[in-house]
Design goal:
324 residues, alpha/beta, Rossmann fold, Histone, subunit A, Helix Hairpins, 6-stranded parallel β-sheet, globular
């Protein structure tokens, strides 16, 4: 870890692993400011299906980057990076420690490594790609990506539509693959190890939490999804639909759970089918999060099933001089 830089803490892990609970425990005993790293929690009016902390919790433990956007808006990793760096700078200026908590791994990577300068989104190209996927299947688009950008295709799973569409969109709009964009930017900045980096100016301690037994996480995911339904998840999505300006191609409505409830309200899925597919989609999300984390460097893992994770986390933070 770099010395002489202000400290920051990343608390990562799959969905339903207990990240928020541990973050609150840390915030009770450390001078931390909480910053959300979640691509769905940014949206106002999307509370139940995102497992957003309740109002009492947010009043007691404010989180930056929660409820900052309307669901009709999009939010990129680059925008997150800018917002997170600003929130971290404010925290550091107060003599406190930024504690970033959430499971959107692309956002963490953007913070750590920066982002290559990619072309802006093109709604027409994106809609065309999504329409093709609906007719031909995502595997066809993944095959197309493998032809024009094998390196990106190797990184992006065929069941990860958002990243798949973005990679093809970049190629369609610019005529260059994502890989080529990164290589060109790196060539223009040979002193940087990472294309377009702008390395994060913090000494970062990285924690990850998850149950040691995968089946327990699956059980938690299923239990939480059914609990969301009981708490009014369907009614929450109904309220979003009634606005009239939202549709299922938006990133907000494509969020895990929301997409399945939207399809149920469209009459395309029964309630039981919706619940089953929502749980499966959440498990797939957790699997992708694990895949990201398995390739992560310098991560201290905690077991959600342990009863002393706070003390374990504090011991680790002290060992890497975060608490000096």
């Amino acid at each position: 870890m770099a010395r002489g830089l202000p400290p920051a803490i990343f608390l990562m892990g799959p969905t339903a692993a207990g990240k928020t609970d541990l973050a609150l425990e840390l915030a009770r005993v450390l001078p931390c400011d909480l910053i959300s790293v979640d691509s769905a929690l940014v949206y106002r009016g999307m509370d139940i299906g995102t497992a957003k902390p309740d109002r009492a919790t947010l009043d007691a433990f404010p989180h930056a980057l929660i409820d900052i956007l309307d669901p009709a808006q999009s939010y990129s990793a680059a925008e997150f990076r800018a917002d997170a760096l600003a929130a971290m700078a404010r925290s550091t200026a107060r003599g406190r420690i930024p504690l970033l908590v959430g499971g959107t791994m692309l956002y963490y990577k953007a913070l750590l490594d920066g982002l290559a300068d990619m072309p802006s989104a093109d709604p027409v190209v994106r809609a065309e790609l999504e329409a093709r996927a609906a007719c031909e299947g995502w595997h066809v688009l993944h095959g197309e990506l493998a032809e024009v950008d094998p390196a990106s295709a190797a990184r992006i799973h065929p069941n990860d539509p958002q990243r798949l569409v973005r990679a093809l969109e970049v190629y369609r709009v610019s005529g260059l693959s994502m890989t080529e964009h990164r290589l060109r930017q790196q060539a223009g900045n040979p002193d940087s190890d990472t294309p377009g980096a702008g390395q994060l100016p913090y000494t970062v301690a990285q924690l990850a939490i998850a149950p040691s037994e995968r089946q327990i996480l699956h059980s938690r995911i299923a239990h939480r999804f059914h609990a969301m339904l009981e708490q009014g998840f369907i009614e929450e999505v109904e309220a979003l639909r009634m606005r009239g300006d939202l549709h299922e191609r938006l990133p907000s409505i494509r969020a895990v759970g929301y997409r399945q409830v939207w399809e149920h309200l469209d009459g395309r899925l029964s309630r039981s089918e919706m619940a089953e597919r929502g749980i499966i989609a959440t498990r797939q999300l957790a699997k992708r999060q694990f895949t990201w984390l398995r390739g992560w460097d310098d991560v201290q893992w905690l077991d959600s099933l342990d009863c002393d994770n706070l003390s374990r986390a504090l011991k680790y933070l002290a060992s890497v001089s975060i608490l000096d």
